[in-house]
Amino acid sequence: MSEATYGSAFFRSWLERTAAAVDEQADRLTELDSAIGDADHGANLKRGFTAVAADLGTDTTATPGALLTAAGRRLISTVGGASGPLYGTLLRRTGKALGEAPEVSRKELAEALATGVAAVAQLGGAQVGDKTMLDALVPAAEALGTSFEAAREAAEAGALATVPLQARKGRASYLGERSIGHQDPGATSAALLITALAEAAV
Asked: With a cut of 50, which residues of the chain have pLDDT below it?
């Protein structure tokens, strides 16, 4: 049996589901960010993904890679703070790694996502354990090689695992030990992104 492949409709669904999840969870993300950040994570991401969703209706010919690349550019141009460059880099680099293929396999997507995650790590200078979005994204990209559901579970577990950590990067790192006991908002929103991906695959 040949492996399933995923075209533009799947990637549109992923981005639309992400936008809907961010819209629904924006207040929670901001609440998490108010404890250890600037209290703007939810509002910033909501603005960005709302713009991404609006763009999806205007281009019906784009390949999966082109869709993600365009979404990444839109996030960089509309989202304030660190979230725009980080999420924008994630989607742009993932999209570029997919190239111009009209359809991609889950394993090809996993490899491309790993490329995007590595670019985020390089941009932010962070690694797993620093209490950032990478705590959800790195295990999710690895688990995506197994299944979409495994990626979702890994991302959600990674986000929860940030609670006992002391932040070593980003705004939360200024708080030192006071950042312990709070779930990282970036890892939480990253888990929403991966959950939307798993839901699009159902």
From this structure: 1
